[in-house]
Amino acid sequence: MYDILPGENEFYVDQNGEKAASIGFIPRGKDSEGYEVIDVDHTSVSEELQGKGVGAALVKRIVEHAKENNLRIVATCPFAESTISKHPEYQDVLAKQ
Questions:
Q1: What pLDDT digit, counting tens, does each position of 9-26 carry?
Q2: Has the keyword Cell cycle been applied to this entry (predicted)?
Q3: Which fold has domain 5-69+77-90?
Q4: pTM metric for this prediction
């Protein structure tokens, strides 16, 4: 697979010195339970990497990041929202409204 690297409010895949795929987030304050919330607002994957599971791996990494840092997620990115909704093991990181 590809190495997923941390960036400023994002995780990304570097390919030949270029960001070939990324998932970004914006801090959004606290949810109704007092957890810090991040809004996963975009996922992008280069044409070359599409269809290889890179987008799903980026979503998995951001969920891991949320769990590691006791954060909650709101996904306004349609791809991230769809991917998270298909994985019961990701549901515990969703922000309570």
A1: 999 999 989 999 999 999
A2: no
A3: Aminopeptidase (3.40.630)
A4: 0.94
